[in-house]
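4.2 Preliminary Data

To establish feasibility before requesting continued support, the project team ran the inverse folding procedure on a target of 468 residues. The structure was first converted into the token representation described in Section 3, and no sequence information of any kind was made available to the design step. The complete token record follows.
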């Protein structure tokens, strides 16, 4: 173990330099600044897509700060919760602004994260050596969904109450343990004060701690392997005599200035929403949530907030009639694995056994259960991206032109699922949701084949960069 040592500074050194030297001897302040900002070399060909990671961090800070101020006045009690929110909105100085910043921030968080994930899909940011960065990102997304779900009940409005009732009851569809699991989550036989208290604890303490830890791990893992870029070229492979990437520039001040510009644009739009359309036509704050929760009066249409609706549509699309198509899809996919994959014989045998077991389960178990399974798998399948993509190149820039249409089709299916999820169910809407569900899962499950097909463009040795 090295002996404790402080740098020797001249006696006439500035007080600030002496203070920094004293801190550096006891805490890696300067070295952390260099490792993660001033001497962290990022590719010089970043575009606007790379600003959304910093924006996500900004929104996280906004949510934590506004959440602290809301907790000062909020009452996690079923008889007082709704009134405390009204008190914040009407009587607490600037309380309405803090509440609208928090509610708008929740939607902004998902918008920014969805765009951040879209960039990762387009430029192959999940590929080697960034698999762990991607997995931490998926963990952040899962925590973000849990945080939003637990916070959704806290206003104790009509949609909060009944939305939580519906989502918690979904766990009851799980065989054997479902009813007990639902009871454990609620803490009661119905959504009640016990449910509110435990959701409050998870929303305010438990999940934020995990979320912050995952964000730190995400950033550390990213800076360990280096950032990706639109060309998919590893800049660490071309360095000068000092080991500095030839195609890299320090994150600070170059990209920090870019991010400040992106933050300015974001805050302009964010402020416009807060001051002029905080409900966003009922998408950010549902009109039913301005009514106190009433266990005796069910809203005509119960739907989660818009950022959950793509996955909710998959749940709702899984009906008894749809099970026939699902069984056919599973059988066809297992046949494809056996006939057209590079798996060894043992792996193919395991795939066949699992396929037969799934088909048998689909014939025996209720469609509601499989809806819950598909909804969960639709999120968890993101974690498999580093191993599903078999393309010889990372970036969409150097893939065959028709690959772009697959990404566009996937994006359209995702948006359509999201829109249909906030609309009342209808036969036509249900049929479209079922088609989009197949498109959604087909994008991922067929990726091992389509991602390697076509004529790929040669990837340059160095990043393509045009000064601007």
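Position-by-position output of the design step:
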């Amino acid at each position: 173990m090295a002996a404790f040592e402080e740098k020797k500074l001249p006696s006439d050194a500035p007080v600030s330099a002496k203070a920094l030297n004293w801190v550096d001897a006891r805490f890696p302040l300067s070295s952390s600044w260099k490792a993660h900002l001033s001497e962290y070399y990022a590719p010089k060909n970043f575009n606007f897509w790379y600003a959304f990671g910093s924006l996500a961090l900004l929104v996280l800070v906004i949510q934590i700060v506004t959440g602290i101020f809301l907790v000062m006045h909020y009452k996690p009690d079923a008889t007082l919760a709704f009134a405390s929110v009204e008190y914040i909105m009407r009587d607490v100085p600037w309380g309405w602004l803090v509440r609208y910043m928090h509610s708008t921030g929740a939607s902004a968080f998902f918008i920014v994260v969805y765009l951040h994930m879209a960039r990762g899909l387009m430029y192959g940011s999940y590929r080697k050596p960034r698999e762990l960065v991607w997995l931490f990102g998926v963990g952040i997304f899962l925590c973000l969904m849990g945080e939003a779900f637990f916070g959704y009940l806290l206003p104790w409005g009509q949609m909060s109450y009944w939305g939580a009732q519906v989502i918690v009851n979904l766990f009851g569809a799980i065989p054997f343990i479902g009813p007990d699991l639902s009871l454990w989550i609620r803490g009661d036989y119905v959504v009640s004060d016990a449910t509110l208290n435990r959701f409050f604890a998870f929303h305010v303490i438990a999940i934020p701690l995990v979320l912050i830890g995952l964000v730190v791990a995400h950033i550390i893992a990213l800076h360990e392997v280096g950032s990706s870029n639109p060309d998919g070229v590893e800049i660490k492979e071309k360095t000068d005599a000092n080991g500095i990437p030839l195609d890299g520039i320090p994150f600070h001040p170059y990209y920090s200035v870019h991010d400040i510009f992106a933050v300015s644009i974001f805050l302009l739009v964010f402020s416009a929403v807060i001051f002029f359309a905080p409900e966003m036509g009922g998408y950010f704050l549902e009109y039913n949530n301005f009514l106190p929760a009433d266990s005796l009066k069910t809203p005509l249409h119960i739907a989660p907030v818009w950022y959950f609706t793509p996955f909710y549509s998959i749940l709702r699309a899984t009906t008894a009639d749809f099970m026939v198509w699902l069984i056919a899809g599973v059988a066809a996919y297992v046949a494809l694995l056996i006939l057209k994959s590079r798996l060894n014989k043992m792996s193919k045998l395991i795939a066949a056994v699992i396929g037969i077991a799934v088909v048998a389960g689909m014939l025996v178990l209720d469609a509601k259960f499989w809806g819950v399974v598909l909804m969960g798998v639709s999120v968890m399948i993101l974690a498999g991206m580093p191993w599903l993509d078999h393309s010889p190149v990372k970036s969409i820039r150097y893939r065959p032109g028709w690959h772009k249409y697959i990404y566009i089709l996937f994006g359209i299916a995702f948006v359509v699922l999201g829109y249909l999820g906030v609309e009342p169910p209808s036969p036509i809407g249900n049929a479209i949701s079922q088609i989009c569900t197949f498109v959604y899962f087909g994008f991922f499950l067929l990726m091992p084949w389509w991602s390697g097909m076509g004529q790929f463009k040669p990837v340059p040795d160095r990043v393509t960069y045009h000064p601007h």
